[in-house]
Amino acid sequence: MPPLIGVTTSEVRRGELATLRRHGEPPQHEMALGLTYMRAIELAGGVPVVLPPLHNGIATLLDRLDGICLSGGPDLDPAAYGARAHEQLGPTEPQLDRFELELARAADSVGVPLLGICRGAQALNVARGGTLHQHVEGHRQTELATQPVHAVRVAPRSRVARVLKTRATQVNSFHHQAVDELGEDLVATAWAPDGTIEAIEDGTRDMFLGVQWHVETLADRPEHGALFAALVEAAAPSTERSLRLAA
């Protein structure tokens, strides 16, 4: 049985979806999540499960899910790591922050495999007590998301190097926040040419990994699709254990 991989979403307000709304539909908030995440997980052999940012039931979710992917989204509120807002801080969703951080910490505590993408990597760092640069210049590309725009140097013998099977790759870039002080037991394992941290991991865990680039839009490239394959592979044993327990 393929593992169930929960994927977090963000919230989009009605005005941001005005052009997509059908005539007469009442105002309401929407969940926002690119289908590229779903397709990448499916391609890797997992079954994606969309997770709305609701706080009740996290323990129940973790009883049923085999892995977690923290997706991209808005800026994290600096209050989550005890900092004041930078003047160029973008829109934030504190309720989403609360949900993702609670989910990440709960999953971490029971060993559920975790992959963080862009904002998701930042959330993994904050969940372990780390901090963020609230604004970095030059990391928002204008090219399509399927187009890599800069190189990344990868630490040898790191988890991400073993997954990518390379010590250098090309990535896309759609962020203006980035990891600053590393969270507990985390190490930086990939960097942009300007020194911005592009990957973090806990080397003692089979899968606690965050990448700053939007790997889901590059998943058709073997080295990037391998990140989702690694998540699914790490999640598979928990499914097997559940089947044995149920037998």
* Terminal-residue CA separation: 14 Å
Let me know the average pLDDT: 90
- What string, H for helix and E for strand, traces the elements in order? EEEHEHEHEHEEHEEEEEH
Strand content: 15-25%
Largest sheet report: 9 strands, mixed
Radius of gyration: 17 Å
- Give the low-confidence spans: none
Helix content: 25-40%
General shape: globular
Strand order of the largest sheet: 4-1-5-6-13-12-11-8-9
Quaternary class? single chain
Number of strands: 13
Query: What class would the helix/strand composition place it in?
Result: alpha/beta
Q: Count of DSSP helices?
A: 6
Descriptive account of the structure:
Strand 11 and strand 12 (197-201) form a beta hairpin. The chain has helices at 35-43, 58-64, 94-109, 119-127, 159-164, 222-246; strands at residues 4-8, 10-12, 30-32, 47-51, 67-70, 114-117, 132-133, 150-154, 168-171, 178-179, 187-191, 197-201, 208-211. The protein starts with a strand and ends with a helix. It is an alpha/beta fold and 247 residues long. Helix 3 crosses helix 4. The chain is built from six helices and 13 strands.
Spell out the blueprint of helices and strands.
Elements: E1 4-8, E2 10-12, E3 30-32, H1 35-43, E4 47-51, H2 58-64, E5 67-70, H3 94-109, E6 114-117, H4 119-127, E7 132-133, E8 150-154, H5 159-164, E9 168-171, E10 178-179, E11 187-191, E12 197-201, E13 208-211, H6 222-246
Helix pairs in contact: 3-4
Short characterization:
By secondary structure, the chain is of the alpha/beta class. The chain has 6 helices and 13 strands.
Keywords:
single chain, 247 residues, alpha/beta, 9-stranded mixed sheet, two-stranded antiparallel ribbon, 6 helices, 13 strands, globular
